[in-house]
Amino acid sequence: MHLYLKDDLLSQRTLILTTTPEEERDGSPNRALVFRVTEGNVAKVVVEFIQKDELDLTSAARLTSRRIRGCLGLINVGDDTFLAVILSATEVGNLRPAASKPEGVARIHEVGFFCLNSNAWDETSSMPIEGLPIGSYDRSDDFTNRNDVYQQPPPSSAPVLEHPCAPLMKILSSGTFYYALSPQWDISSRLVKRRINEKSADEENQMYDDRFLWNAFIVRSLLDFRQNLDRNERDEIDRCQFIVLAIQGYAGIFTVPLSAPPTSGMPVIATIALISRLGWKRAGTRFNTRGIDDDGNCANFVETETIFNTDDANFSYVQVRGSVPLFWEQQGLQTFGQRIQITRPHASQPAFEAHFANLLEEYNSVHAINLLGTKENEAILASSYRKHLDAARTVFGDNIGITNFDFHNCVRIGGHESVTSEITSRRFEGVHNNIDKFGYTLFDASSNELVIEQSGIFRTNCLDCLDRTNFVQDILSWASLEQYLCVVRREWTTSMSLRTNHRELWAENGDALSRIYAGTGALNTSYTRSGKRTLAGVLSDATKSVSRAYINNFQDKGKQTAIDMFLGNLSYQRPVTIHDPIHDTVNMALFQRLPEYSTIKDGVIFVGTWNLNGRPPSESLLPWLFPLPDSEEPDLLVIGFQEIVQLNAQQILQTDPEKKRIWEQAIMEALKHRPGKRSDYILLRSEQLVGTALVIFVKSTVLHFIRNVEATTRKTGLRGMSGNKGAVAIRLDYHDTSFCFITAHLAAGQSNVEERNSDYHTIVEGLHFLKGKTIDSHDNIIWLADTNYRIDLANENVRRLLDSDELDVLVAADQLKNVMDSQLVFVGYEEGPLTFQPTYKYDIFTQRYDTSEKQRAPAWTDRILYRGDQLSLKVYSRAELIGSDHRPVYAMFNALVRVVDNARREALRRLLLQNIMSTSSNEKLDEKLALLSLVNERDMLPPPSSEEEQWWVDDDHPDGVYVTDDLFDRPRKRTGNPFDSDSSVSSPSSSDEELYTDALSLVAPPAVAQSTKSTFRKPPPPPPSRNTKPPSVTNSP
Fold first, then answer.
1. Which of 421, 500, 778, 1003 has the fewest CB atoms inside 10 Å of its own CB, making it the most exposed?
2. What domains can be seen in the chain, in order of their start residue?
3. pTM above 0.85, yes or no
4. Rounded Cα gap, residues 492 and 502, in angstroms
């Protein structure tokens, strides 16, 4: 393919991707793909798929001399939109060289990003990326006439700016991305899934495994564009291979000659291959992405397939690896000791079960091999893993299991050689038995018919799912392949070339996956390659460990941001859409009709903040946590602490988490033993920054509706270097409404208003969650903080006004109120009325304000502020707990939580699309769409029943008895036994026609009379079934 640019005064800047004469001679259609942005919206692109002969390329120039291998998609960065194309790739090999449809694999080496709306980046769009070896992969097809290539006039001594997509170029040009060389096969799917898709797929849809399609975000609009083409055009765009679907991971292929069968003197030429497909749904680098998310996606999830092909059969064996599927992370500087924090120890089960449910749906049966050791942190994680899996077995039964194998201990006792014999021995029955039970997949090569299908998979993990995991997966792969070879040709099991190539593939696989996740090659690969442990291998592993520590701590954050940008995870990113007036109208109508496919649920949120002055629990917390005992129990309890530890130098350098655990336990005890208990609560998430801590408890009945829980911190002490002051934030989604909670401790001092204002802005601008989310990204935001804002009056005046209960005068002098009125901080936030006395500063265990030598003036330092249309303040007050020099403050909110019915939304989308497509020229589209409505099946149901009232009991039917007298008064036609032979009744030997005629003569039963008292109710029991299908649609009159 060639990439052309048309950019002159007479036409809009346009990029044109065309087939080459060589490709057309090889059977590719003579076609072109044309791109240009729409006016006024750079994130919306016009795309045309036209005959190349229809284009006038006389005024166009080659934008690059490189041959284009395909288009990866479109991405918007800032004010520019870019076309991502493959500039260089090499063929890895062919999985089935003898087949009529070859299955070639290519490895991407270079990717360029060319701007659709500006020439500012033309010079840097395909420049070598710093730090990447370019080599000479694909330069043979450069133009000999360099004047035909578009050249941007060089700027006069101006420095060349870095291309906005330079981080993406670096990742995509790292040699870890692969694609299929022909459109006939799908590299993202394993063999059995691919063959099933090939048989069942219609010509309209491209079949691929969405879990492993890494360019899904940037190619989605082009796939939608392809979907809207007619059948012939879809076939042609596929044959042109303009659109490329890429995976990340590893692909390696070797050709192996094997001994000939007795009937032939010719050797058998086989191919052995390994394809690892890295999942993208929780992608990232080692210390930035751990554990699981609420959808059950885990970090470093890889499906690895061993493929062995001959002319007679196609063998496939699949394994997966993935991070321990719990909520855990590693924050701060990590060296060679692993500091692990399980962030949601009591709230991981739903996500854990979702993960295994996804695996079972995909692979039928799963046996986990846990390689974590007995060191403190790994042991805690392993114990929690086992506990969650045992609980999940009550749901999934024997379809899931686990084997714990301490890899390091085994190596310490018997060396690496002992792992090979131990892991598959009878001592570990779960592994030994399931190797035979799960089996492998086998297809007949000539007929493509399935002979046997793998019935389950091993899910292997260590801490990083790299070195130990790769070592064990190599063993399992060979064990399965050997099992197959023993059936077809036993002598092939002793083939040194086959075993050596298998080892080499797994060693390369380990290095590739390790470089993606940790930045260096894998450890132990010297043994994987040679079967020996050497001094050179030991020194190499030591060097890699040091390099990992540096890269993971100091370079991975930038790489993580680039990964999130490529995957579309950043909150400020706009997906590029293709100009499509029909679908644009549908999307706008859907947004305007949100209430039709969503409901509003009432929620209650308790929010409390308390500066503890470093004190432990000393009194009942119930007056604070449940100030209104008879009111509805809150769905969420959000509790912020400041000075949970003494703010001394030792704590600032290394925070003690034990105090936080003590307070968490105290809250749990209060919740557990509260009088009139109606609900159970679970610790959802907690986070600590030196003395500032945030803890969230959730009612057990709503836990399944809480998703995407994340925590982060921001230091503000010593200009952002110290954590003695700062903020902790936790964000979450409750159904389809987002919440962000921030507890903070701002600068102290009566007159330090500017410092407090500065701390606020540092937090707002510098506090970020994953995927680019900020505080302002959320629907609802609540601050619960020791703001340290004081009252601008002399101490004696403050106390005198307090004695006379003149709070209004004090509120008028409140520093926080004044800076908010001046819109210096907390712009757009609200606070309840200050009807309670100042919360700072008291003599501990008394009701007296400060009587110490400093005699600090009382102030409302502890505050709760909020922003969000769905929040309604119910109560705002303080609790009379005396165990600190501050009084705790609390607020109760009513929250309107939106619940989106996705099936109903999809039904409405289809209805809108259908009616737009069928609109004639004389119809007014707006009026037509306004008349459309969905039948709400919930409105057709009777009212819900209760202990006092049941829908089937009314005045006409006391006790729910429905009597139809005419049924019993009707004279009976027959008096004898209906089974006795009777000439007037059809006999068993009667013909079908006689049976049918006799059936017509039977008297139909009378209809049951319905109550006329309530016209909206359905007939009496049994109650109407609840249809799980998308709701039906009608047109309103």
1. 1003
2. 250-496 (no CATH), 598-900 (3.60.10.10)
3. no
4. 13
